[in-house]
Structure to design on (145 residues):
């Protein structure tokens, strides 16, 4: 009869330990991964302002030029946003080989056309669509001309 008591005790202790371990594992995962909304959005958005290295004062000069010649109707606020770049793309399309849509996005095609324009302002680098230091320096010269 004694071995039977030990067997039952051992089975009971094993069951209690198993239940406790299972409860702790479940509690740990429920606290580790609460059911909430993610803090970071998975949506991608376009950068709203891209001054390409210009100060606000320099960007205001560009916006004034865009307002005078290329139909820019926004504020002269020193922030080259979508509407500023749409006006600039109209210029680039007319004279500098820009073939993309007038969307205000400063992508590689916009930068390539800008680099063509900036040849007149000391840009000597490749027409590669990358707004590196040479492009930004020539853009500053353009803004201050």
């Amino acid at each position: 009869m004694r071995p039977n008591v030990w067997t039952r005790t051992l089975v009971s202790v094993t069951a209690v330990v198993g239940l406790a371990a299972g409860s702790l594992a479940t509690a740990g995962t429920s606290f580790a991964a609460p059911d909430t909304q993610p803090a970071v959005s998975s949506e991608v958005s376009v950068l709203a302002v891209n001054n390409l290295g210009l100060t606000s004062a320099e960007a205001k000069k560009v916006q004034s030029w865009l307002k005078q010649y290329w139909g820019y109707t926004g504020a002269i606020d020193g922030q080259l946003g979508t509407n500023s770049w749409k006006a600039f793309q109209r210029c680039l399309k007319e004279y500098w080989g820009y073939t993309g849509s007038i969307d205000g996005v400063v992508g590689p095609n916009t930068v390539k056309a800008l680099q063509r324009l900036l040849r007149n302002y000391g840009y000597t680098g490749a027409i590669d669509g990358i707004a590196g230091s040479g492009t930004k320096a020539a853009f500053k010269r353009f803004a201050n001309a």
User: Anything to note?
Assistant: The two ends are 104 Å apart (CA to CA). The CA atoms of residues 66 and 72 lie 5 Å apart. Confidence is low (pLDDT under 50) at residues 27-33, 38-45.
